[in-house]
Amino acid sequence: MLGTTIILAFRAINRHKLRSFLTTLGIIIGVAAVVTMVTLGNGATAAVREQISSLGANVLQLRPGQGFGRGGGGPRPPAFKPADLTAIENQLTGVRAVAPLVQSSGTAIYEGSNWSTTVYGTTASYFEVQSWKSDTGRLFMPEEEEAGKPVCIIGNTVRTNLFQGSDPVGKRLRIKGVSCQVIGALATRGQGGFGDQDDVVVMPIKFVQRRFTGDRDISQIMIAVDDAYDTSTVQASLEELMRDRRKVKPGAEDNFNVFDTKQISDTLTGTTTILTQIVAAVAAISLLVGGIGIMNIMLVSVTERTREIGIRLAIGAVAREVLMQFLVEAIVLSCLGGLIGLLLALAASVAIAPLMQVPFIFDVRVNVIAFLFSAAIGVVFGYFPARRAAALNPIDALRHE
Amino acid sequence: MAADPIISLRGVTKVYGSGPTAFQALKGIDLDIQQGDFVAVMGPSGSGKSTTMNILGCLDVPSDGEFLFKGRHVETLDRDQRALLRRRYLGFVFQGFNLLSRTTALENVELPLLYRGEDRKARHEAGMAALDKVGLKDWWDHTPAELSGGQQQRVAIARALVTQPAVLLADEPTGNLDSERSLEIMELLRGLNRDVGITVIMVTHEPDMAAYARTLVHFKDGHVERIEEGVSA
């Protein structure tokens, strides 16, 4: 019975190839649009997540003041001291690595070339916190950190601008008027959320404090949380520790802030996900329009094939069989449209993803849902015309011109 | 007249519409048709013969009265039950052929078997056999547009007899054909009636065609005016 109706449906579609194609065009475009949008959106989300994770996964950044854009008047909140660093290392559980950071900026000069860049004063732990490996050379030795020796590790941007192709390790460059030896060069990180991460010269913190900033202040502490611990728990105990150490009165606001990269990552990926959903919803409207197109053509088809329906009823088709025939026809059409749409979406996504610089991610779930949805459209929009066909009176239908 | 008739109408009326605009197409028909008979239904237009054919074809129901088909009360059956009755026992031939367009002769002939749920092989064999009976075996893959009127009507007859129905209902089967084709069709119908024993009920205006029938039923103003039996051999 169902087999028969499917045969009949394919025969009817085959008899009207052009019309069938035009009927399904709406579904084809709708499915292709939705699936392409969702696929590219997922790629964009993955790209954002990738960029954020380049900032370091599960890293807490501790800074003085009350976060971005606040502070305004009042005394400047005190910077952190080396003792704060020790306290965090010794008293906080769930910490994988801790690194202090002071920043300065200046021009680096090597032979004829000069390059304006950022100078980071930190320890070897910084690279551990950032999961950042050196490409060539080595990181700081403990004695270099302890003594604040004039050594530096350069980012890839500095490397290409000062040394072009040549090996920088062992060379001496001048930065802010002092000479230092390059002991390593870092692997490329690319564009992060906050500009070019490779445009940096990293030196022992004691050297930077002594020669550039002139005090022992630490402007930022970076804490890598152990994977076995929950970032927010560690963050809470960190805040408690710092309130205690910085003598913040109960009820008073923190004079420091903790910045959780995971939180930022979640927020940003959440934003791209919502954007994807909005675009997909707009595309889904075209799918709905496609469904109405199917209903439209099926209604015309029922009117045009009134006599055929009359013949079928006279021959002995029961109402349900006629209903099924038209319903199955609509479903077959919309499923075919769905399939073609999926293939188009695949081709479009593969072609567009590299242009948008996002990875192509084939999501089986999205494709299956889009296909089932197109089938459902066939059922919903095919039912009304099919019922109209089944309800025809055979005598009138046979007389229909 | 000893056997029970295959078809029996008793006091059948048919009223279209209601109230003052109501039109009584049939005003009480009594008619018996024996198994194996060849009946020609004649009468001027509006005399009620088409309405009677619709009722006999189980396409329509009487407003009042009884319609017994093989002893079953058709007037009590619902739409789908009547469809199943048509599928099982009836074959239709129409004035306008009513073949599916863009569909081969064989597919047209196979159509009733599809609804009977017969498999592909059985459909094909029975379809070809039916086409052979009407002399169109070699034309099986032609669509109606590629066939002459007479050939189309023969395909329609093949479609009607492919299920080996008990009764063949033909509504002016030669109405759209020239006299030569018409005679071919009539010969075909007479042959089927004589050789296979199908009961044929045919509406016609033309005495030449009616001459092929054994029983003539004359309609007038919604009544059976008279019945002539044993007209031809």
UniProtKB/TrEMBL annotation, chain A:
One of its GO terms (cellular component) is plasma membrane. This is Putative ABC transport system permease protein. It holds the Pfam family FtsX. The keyword Membrane applies. The keyword Transferase does not apply. It is a multi-pass membrane protein. The chain crosses the membrane at residues 21-41, 278-302, 323-352, 364-384. Belongs to the ABC-4 integral membrane protein family. GO terms for molecular function: transmembrane transporter activity. Residues 281-394 form the ABC3 transporter permease C-terminal domain. Residues 20-240 form the MacB-like periplasmic core domain. It is found in: Cell membrane. Keywords: Cell membrane, Membrane, Transmembrane, Transmembrane helix. Its main location: membrane. It comes from Sphingobium vermicomposti.
Automatic annotation (TrEMBL), chain B:
The keyword ATP-binding applies. Residues 7-233 form the ABC transporter domain. GO terms for cellular component: membrane protein complex; plasma membrane. One of its GO terms (molecular function) is ATP hydrolysis activity. It comes from the Bacteria. Keywords: ATP-binding, Cell inner membrane, Cell membrane, Membrane, Nucleotide-binding, Transport. The keyword Calcium does not apply. Pfam families: ABC_tran (PF00005). Gene3D superfamilies: P-loop containing nucleotide triphosphate hydrolases. SUPFAM superfamilies: P-loop containing nucleoside triphosphate hydrolases (SSF52540). InterPro entries: AAA+_ATPase (IPR003593), ABC_transporter-like_ATP-bd (IPR003439), ABC_transporter-like_CS (IPR017871), ABC_transpr_LolD-like (IPR015854), MacB-like_ATP-bd (IPR017911), P-loop_NTPase (IPR027417). Belongs to the ABC transporter superfamily. Macrolide exporter (TC 3.A.1.122) family. This is Putative ABC transport system ATP-binding protein. It comes from Sphingobium vermicomposti. The lineage of its organism: Bacteria, Pseudomonadati, Pseudomonadota, Alphaproteobacteria, Sphingomonadales.
